Amino acid sequence: QIYDRLEPLLGCFERRSPSREDIDAAADGPAADVILFGLGRYGQRIAQGLRSEGISVIGVDFDPAALAEWRRAGFQGRFGDATDPEFVAHLPLSGTRAVISAVPRTDSPLTVSDPQLALLHGLRSAGFGGTIALAASGRASIPEGPEFAGVEWLTPFDDAAAYAVERVSAIVRPSREAG
After folding, report:
1. With contact defined as beta carbons under 8 Å apart, do 49 and 100 qualify?
2. How far apart are CA 58 and CA 29, in angstroms?
3. What is the pLDDT of residue 140?
């Protein structure tokens, strides 16, 4: 009876955005060719390119807004954190050919809490045998060590610069050869 009387006043304490459980309730679905961590601009561009190649992608992020936008774009997504080995172990890894982390690591010293290292350990502990690709802010921030053997490194800024050089060179060469 007390609750019934107070219920109209309690609305201001309710969450305005969905809970993690509500977000993940919509995450069930088939496995994909690629699992992509980090649904920011870089991750979304990778996913769009993969989808245009006919490659299926499941996206993972711990930002509910990024995940909601991801799903509005028609992608399958899961709410989760790359640093949680329990979460990584429950991903649909069988049948997945590659896991990509689009969250670039910085030049900061490598620690146990580093998301890239945590994801790598989680995937290996779960027995994932596919390709693991991790983003780094540049070649200088790629860590060395035996734990990174076999990892493919993505360097968005270096790769974008190389692509820009390739495009500009294609424009300049023909005009130079004609002149």
Report:
1. no
2. 9
3. 78
List helix spans (H) across the chain.
2-6, 20-25, 41-52, 64-72, 85-89, 115-125, 156-178
What is the pLDDT at residue 157? 84
Q: For residues 49 and 175, give the distance between their C-alpha atoms in angstroms, rounded to a whole number.
A: 31
**Residue ranges in the chain whose pLDDT is less than 50:** 17-28
Integer Cα distance of 99 and 5 in angstroms: 51
| 3-class secondary structure, 95 | coil
Measured between alpha carbons, how far is residue 101 from residues 11, 57, 75, 175 in Å? 39, 12, 16, 40
CA dihedral 6, 7, 9, 14 (to 10 degrees): 140
- Both tokens of 16, joined, read 């305005």
Region class of 95: left (phi > 0), else alpha (psi between -120 and 50), else beta? left
Contact 34, 50 (CB under 8 A): yes
Query: Are 133 and 101 in contact, with CB atoms under 8 Å apart?
Result: yes
